Write the structure tokens for this entry.
Amino acid sequence: MQDTRILLVEDETDILNLLKYNFQNQGYSTLTAQDGNKALEMVEDYHPEAIVLDLMLPEKSGEEVARVLKTKESTKHIPIIMLTAKGEEEDRITGLEIGADDYMVKPFSPRELMLRVQAVLKRSKSTEKNRSDQWESEGLLVQFDTYQVFIQGEEVELTRTEFDLLASLVRSEGRVLTRENLLDKVWGYDFEGFARTVDTHMHRLRHKLGAYSDWIKTVRGIGYRLKRQ
């Protein structure tokens, strides 16, 4: 892990030092920033493998930083875990809309944050492919090797998490995937009480799929499955 660089962006010094201690203790190389502008400079100069990003920052907010990074070709692939002092649904959805791969609400468990970072790193480095490099049906095209989705020839901008959710459903077409299955497949963890995370991401994915949203069926009390109309 020594060559794995994690950028920690947090304006509260005590929290930043706690994060730095825990990540370095696990063998990660850590970079730090306490405002949004400095965070963007650090990304440009050092190209971290993942970013832990506080939402409330001076200069530029975490939301602004994430928007900049997710719209640039050179940085949009970097996983972002958003930290927020608020746990309301609106704040979580905001994080997902701007491309955050995961989020945690303060106060948080350093151990759980570490597991989530390990999970997004594993996903970002994964080269696993399906037997076929793509799946297509009635104008919906999923390209597994390039992580792209097209509707009637037009590319749909999905976050990595949204793509992984869709890919999991496509590869298990017709079969029900429980929320716990999806947490394990997509996030790489299964913490009790975090199944709501799946529902929030699935809501965003359905919205982006437009007319194909009905293909994702909710199995009440269990999870989801992909079933073409």
Remarks:
- Residues 110-125 form the longest helix (16 residues).
- Residues 5-125 form a domain with the Rossmann fold fold (CATH 3.40.50.2300).
- The longest strand covers residues 5-9.
